[in-house]
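Sequence, please.
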């Protein structure tokens, strides 16, 4: 207490000074003296400025196919840092002959012990010498190993990536640690108020029932004990083939990149080719190259949704309604993206202005009109052979039926009148998001890798800017009608006692005004 009083006395007797430009001047008689340079004369003795020069290779993506079919793609960039990585045609959609969850395990096992590095610490120590970091990411249709570091450490970084990709040890202890990490992740997802991750798995399962894109991205709890070392190496030997891989780099010299990739990815063989005892051929397991089959349907789970601590929000139920979209190579892909931006949406408590999409349809027509609607957001997912556009909404359980009716009506209205102002706003917002994202070196890397993996080349950002600009009202209406011609997919979690049946959603989507039938049983005969 004595120290506290002493501190208070010190504060009360201390003079607080506020900076002012006048304090840079000291009065000496009638003269004012200053240490600041005069504002009306150029600053003396400045070094000669060095301006960056734009080179041709900074504007083109160079692609080289090596002797074993592996593709190398890169763009040079200014700066001392580079981002390089491996993008693989792998992911949960290819696990039809395997227990679902293999990709989830591989994501947790990435950058552990390899043939050249005895443990993860060795890898991280080597990366730290070059100011680097590494990461891996599994999705439904791709698997990515990537690292960012000083360009001077390119040789070591590519060596690390090759080891992590082609020569992992995958020890029993590492598998046990991955199993424990996944188990904890699954438990955590069920304890969090955010439902996005779980619902995205559910809407894909409903849209592509028991095939390709409908297979779960998250490892089901029942499969945690089924995935072992032999199964993982069987999967790796089939899917981590050179013709299914692209090594991409941003901020590197292309010839140098090809040289080190040849050294570590081609000249040195994968571990499953040098150590044949890692796995034995398993009957009825082959590489899956089937095309996604959109089925539509419903996946729902009656459960208690956790609440945000001390937020004062009610218990919410979540519903996602989706329609079959298009692949990223489809002529309607750009129009679908613009339509998705027009729908927009977010949460009731989002702050911000037009830049956050506060003038999109799901704000103006839904969130601003129905006080009980807590969120409504549009998403579009596009893959090599199919896609899905969906709206995720949440509301208290007693408003679930009304929430579904509102979302169905909004989907039907997609094919209605398109306002010129909202179209212009959506196109501008999509163009700005594209360009802002491509300011990030890791995003450029992923864009290069994914495009080259899918098509063998990369389209420049200007191509997409121009294509977005071409979209008019007719294209929006046409793609909306295409979406509405498909069967709906529905995913729901929470208290679903007032959840309408799938046939009511189907009937609402084919109604001209988006009206769902009343509570009586649907029948072909009146």
């Amino acid at each position: 207490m004595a120290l506290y009083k002493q501190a208070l006395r010190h504060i009360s007797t201390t003079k607080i000074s506020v900076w002012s430009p006048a304090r840079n001047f000291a009065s000496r008689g009638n003269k004012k003296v200053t240490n600041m340079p005069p504002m009306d004369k150029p600053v003396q003795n400045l070094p000669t400025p060095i301006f960056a020069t734009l080179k041709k290779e900074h504007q083109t993506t160079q692609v080289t196919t090596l002797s074993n079919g592996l593709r190398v793609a890169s763009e040079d960039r200014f700066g001392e840092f580079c981002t390089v990585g491996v993008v693989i045609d792998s992911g949960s959609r290819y696990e039809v002959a395997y227990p679902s969850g293999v990709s989830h395990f591989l994501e947790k096992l990435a950058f552990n012990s390899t043939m050249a590095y005895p443990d993860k610490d060795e890898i991280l120590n080597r990366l730290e010498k070059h100011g680097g970091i590494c990461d891996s990411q599994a999705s439904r249709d791709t698997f990515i190993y990537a690292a960012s570091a000083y360009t001077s450490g390119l040789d070591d970084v590519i060596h690390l990536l090759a080891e992590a990709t082609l020569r992992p040890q995958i020890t029993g202890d590492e598998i046990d640690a991955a199993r424990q990490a996944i188990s904890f992740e699954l438990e955590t997802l069920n304890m969090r108020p955010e439902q996005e991750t779980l619902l995205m798995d559910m809407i894909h399962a409903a849209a592509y029932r028991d095939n390709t894109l409908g297979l779960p991205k998250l490892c089901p709890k029942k499969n945690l004990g089924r995935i072992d070392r032999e199964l993982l190496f069987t999967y790796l030997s089939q899917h981590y083939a050179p013709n299914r891989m692209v090594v991409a780099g941003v901020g590197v010299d292309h010839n140098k990149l090809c040289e080190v990739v040849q050294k570590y990815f081609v000249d040195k063989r994968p571990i499953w080719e040098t150590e044949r005892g890692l796995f034995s051929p398993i009957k009825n397991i082959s590489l899956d190259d089937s095309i996604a089959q959109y089925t539509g349907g419903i996946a729902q789970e009656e459960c208690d949704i956790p609440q945000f601590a001390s937020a004062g929000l009610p218990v919410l139920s979540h519903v996602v309604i989706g329609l079959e979209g298009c692949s990223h190579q489809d002529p309607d892909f750009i129009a679908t993206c613009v339509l998705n931006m027009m729908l927009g949406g977010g949460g009731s408590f989002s702050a911000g202005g037009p830049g956050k999409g506060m003038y999109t349809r799901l704000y103006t027509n839904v969130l601003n009109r129905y006080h009980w609607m807590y969120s409504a957001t549009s998403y579009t997912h596009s893959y090599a052979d199919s896609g899905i556009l969906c709206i995720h909404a949440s509301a208290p359980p007693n408003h679930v039926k009304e929430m579904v009716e509102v979302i169905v009506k909004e989907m039907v209205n997609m094919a209605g009148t398109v306002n010129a102002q909202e179209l212009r706003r959506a196109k501008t917002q999509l163009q700005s998001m594209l360009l802002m994202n491509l300011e990030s070196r890791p995003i450029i890397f992923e864009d290069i890798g994914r495009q080259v993996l899918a098509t063998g080349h990369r389209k420049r950002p200007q191509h997409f800017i121009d294509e977005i600009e071409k979209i008019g009202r007719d294209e929006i209406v046409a793609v909306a009608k295409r979406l509405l011609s498909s069967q709906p997919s529905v995913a729901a979690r929470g208290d679903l006692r007032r959840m309408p049946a799938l046939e009511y959603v189907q009937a609402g989507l084919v109604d001209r005004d988006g009206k769902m039938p009343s509570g009586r049983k649907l029948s072909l005969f009146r």
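DSSP finds 17 helices and 14 strands in the chain.
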